[in-house]
Amino acid sequence: MADKPFSILIDESTDVSLTKHLCICARYYSDEQKSVIDDFLGLAAVISTTGADLFAVLETKLTSVGLSLKNCIGYSSDGASNVIGFHNSVWSRVRAVSPNCILMRSTCHSLNLIVQHSFELMPSSVGFLLSEIPQGTPSPFQKYSATQWLVRGKFLYNLMVNWYELKAYFLCAEARAPACIRYRVTTINNMFKDETLYFYVVFLTPIVQEFERLNVLFQGTNVDPEKLVSELNLHYKSLQQRVLDNQGVQLPLKRVDFGAKFLSDCLKPKKK
Fold this sequence. Notes:
By secondary structure, the chain is α/β, with parallel strands linked by helices.
């Protein structure tokens, strides 16, 4: 593939020994196999992660396997400025060598960032429950981490379906909690008394789950690109229809689609 057009995918990672690495993959069309091939080119240890240093590592690796950046037609990475920024990044240097190269951002990373940034607009109590409940309750709750892309939806769902059981659990736990954690348990117990917080969880759960379903699709192998684009467009339109009318004008609050369960639970008698 020395003279063939190819695309590259890079990503930074840190292992358990806190050593930073640059993972490099290449995608190209194989005449022999009559299909697009993904090849893992290597994992290079790096000391500095500036755009200049990462580009030097990338160029050295490509040269060692007989590839030239002049033949690079596609470049993809996550959203960090040192790798895709338009100035003084890996991408800016790749573009200088190969002006016709196309930048493709990581769709999976972008989907996760959308959810992550959306949570910053939610009440802080939602994020507090996400991080605190797994520390004091058994399964089905797994430890929450903002860097684990497919955890939020599962946790929100388990929180939603077990809301009243957890409410009873923390009511009992408050009286028995040792002094060192009593304030935290009391705080959580008071949160479960807030029905508004419950409805935030009900509203968020199906939306976050749909984002994570899309994320899984884009992480798949041998997936039809046309299907992925179609799924992404459908998701975008479904989100639009929740808050906008057919002319793209924001709906009044009473016409916003908060979800079937949200509406159903609003009409139910309140539980004590």
